Amino acid sequence: MLCAALLPASLGLAGCSHGDRGGERPAVLPSPLAVPSAPPQVSGWRAVATEADRARLRNWRTAWMDALAKARNAGAGMRIVAQGALLAPDAALVDPAPPPGDYRCRVIKLGAQSAGLPDYIAYPYFACRIAGADGERSLRKLDGSQRPAGLIYPDSDRRMIFLGTMVLGDEKRGLAYGRDADRDMVGLVERVGPRRWRLVLPYPRWESTLDVIELLPRD
User: Which domain of life is it from (predicted)?
Assistant: First the structure.
């Protein structure tokens, strides 16, 4: 049994001759450890979005259905129909990127978050601006007391993703995205007509269940 004492037991040796007729059997070596693969690299909006905003984005359809139901129950059914594709959840067309330039934009709020607030309200047109070329673009609402500002990221052939913050009152600039969850905004940018886009914001922090911002080029 001398060789059994000289070799580690972990090699799983049945290897020293014990006088059996088959002679020595070769040692069974342990398998090499599997090397875990590197995690996939995250880029674009997924590398920036907070977990809370990822959840809002995942549940965009639930927000939309709930908001429409509240608005219809409040008697706004005909006003919803009058907006056509703007308020239809599945109306997104291919080629979603809005071209840079100045826009007329208006906000429609659907589904009040608390009693006493309207379940449907459409605001007048304000001024918005989209800047940038290929890839990411920026969007800013230029006037009004609540002014979304942020970046638009590529996503699919029918939608882009908006990540931004809410600029309030007389503030000259908003907080950086991710610093204040109450100001953070996430939404879908979609084209719903030849020259008509929308920014859909599920579960905004204040007032409504869904905000839809219509974007119409000024030229």
Answer: Bacteria
